[in-house]
Amino acid sequence: MSERLAILGGEQACPTGTVQPWPPIDDIDREMVMASLEQDIHTFGPNCQEFEKEFAEWSGNKYAITTNSGTASLHMCVAACDCGPGDEVIVPAYSWSSSVTCVLHHNAIPVFVDLDFDTINIDVDKIEEAITPRTKAIIAVHLHGLAVNMDKVLEVARRHNVKVIEDACQAHGATFNGKKVGTMGDCAAFSLNQNKCLCSGEGGFFVTDDEDMNFRARQLWSFGETRTPAESRDYHAYALGWMYRNNDLTAAFGRAQLTKLDGYLAQQKENAARLTECLQEIAYLIPPTEPEGHEHTWYNYTTRFDMEALGHADDAADFRDKLVKAFKAEGVETGVWQSYILPRMTVFQAKNGYGFGCPWSCPHAAEVDYSPEQYPVAEKHANTHTGMTVPLRAPNRPDVAEKTAAGFRKVMENLDQLEEVDWASVE
Q1: Contacts of residue 111, Cβ cutoff 8 Å, sequence gap at least 6
Q2: Are 298 and 271 in contact (CB under 8 A)?
Q3: pLDDT tens, 131-190?
Q4: Which long-range contacts does 289-296 make (Cβ < 8 Å, 24+ apart)?
C-alpha cells in the first residue's frame, strides 16, 4: 500500500527530533575543558602535549603532532615526504579538496587517478600507470571510514621508491588486514573537525614512525623553527614554515572525547549493521560495501542509486538531488557530500594556484592533463550518491537506523509521487 510522501504533506517516516546531535557532551568534557580554561597556558599548553602522547598510543604511532586542522596535517605530510616544485603526487579524483590542495601548498603537482566504484576509494590497480619519474608520493585517502587496500598501494610504492601518505581524516580506527590506518604508510593525517568520529570542533594530527619526517613536519608546523614551543626556542626560521599548532582548550576537548572514541566506534558499527540489514532489497539502491580484510568505521554511510535502472542516466545528479530532498522531508538526515570530482574544480581546470599559472608553470613542472572525462567512475559516484553521518553516531542507537531506513524505503517505493512535487517551491 502506498504512503503519502512527507514532501507532499504525509507523515514523516523518521519524525523530527529522532536523531540526536553529535558529539555527545558529558561531565568528562566539561571537567577537562574547564580545567584548561582555568590554568595559565591557552596556546600550545599541557593538554596539547598530553594529547599527542595519548593519541600516539591509541593510533599505534611513534610520533604524533597535534595541529589546528586536518588540512594542516596533510600539508605537513607533503612536506615531511620532501615533495617540492615539479614533484608529482598521485591523488584520488574524488575526495575532500584538502586531499589534493595540500599538494599545491608545497608547490608540487597533483596527478589524479579514478575511483573504484565499490569502495569509493582510489582504484589501486590504476596507480602504477600514473607514476612518472617525477612521482614523489601517493596519497591514499581512506574515504568515509573504509581503508584503501594498502598492500597493493605499498607494493607499487616500494617498487618505484615513492612515499605513501595516508589521509585518515575520516577514518579513525579503520583497519586493513588488522592494521590501523595511519600505521601502514610513511606518515598520515587525521582531522578532529566537528563531523569527525574524534571531534574537538577543529583540529588534527600528523603521525609517523620516522624521526626525520617528524622533524620536517614539526618545522613546517611552527614557523620553520627547529625547536618546539615546549622547548627553549631561538625564534629563528630555518626553512619556510606556517603556524599549524593546536591550542590547549581544543586539545582538552579532544582528550576528553578520545576516552570515549572506542565506544563511539562500536556504536557506529552496530548502527550501520542494522541500517544495512534494513536497506536490503530496496529497489534501485546500492548500499555501501565492506570488503574482506577491511573493518569499516562508518564515518559516512554512503549509498548510491542505479540511475540506469531508474531511467535517469542522463540527468542523474538532478534526480539524485530530488531524491535527497524527499528523504530529508521524511526526516532522514542525508545529503550530498561532494558533488564535484576534484579535477573539475576551478583551481585545477585553470591551473593557476598562486598566479601566473604556478605551480604548473614553474620551470621544474611537467605538463599534466586534467580532462574530466578521464575519471568516469568518480563522475558516476559524484552524481549518484547520498551520505549521512549523524544518524549512525552515538548516542543514537539501532532504532534510529530503523527509522532512517523506513524513510529510504518509503521514498523508493513511492517514486511515482515525485512527479506531483512542485520542485521550484522546495528548498
Answers
A1: 88, 89, 90, 91, 130, 132, 135, 368
A2: yes
A3: 999 999 999 999 999 999 999 999 999 999 999 999 999 999 999 999 999 999 999 999
A4: 289/118, 289/119, 290/146, 291/118, 291/119, 291/149, 293/149, 293/176, 293/177, 294/146, 294/147, 294/149, 294/174, 294/175, 294/176, 295/147, 295/174, 295/175, 295/176, 296/145, 296/146, 296/174, 296/269, 296/272
3-state secondary structure 359-400: CCCCCCCCCCCCCHHHCHHHHHHHHHEEEECHHHCCCCCHHH
Residue 245 in grid coordinates: 599548532
User: Cell 544495512 belongs to which residue?
Assistant: 276
**HSE of 92 in the Cβ direction (CA atoms, 13 Å)?**
32
| Amino acid letter, residue 30 | R
Q: Could you give the C-alpha distances from 215 to 24, 66, 76, 218, 416, in angstroms and in order?
A: 35, 14, 10, 5, 60
Write down the H helix ranges in 226-311: 248-258, 261-279, 307-310
- Global pTM exceeds 0.90: yes
| Domains (range + CATH), the chain | 6-23+261-338+380-425 (3.90.1150.10), 27-260 (3.40.640.10)
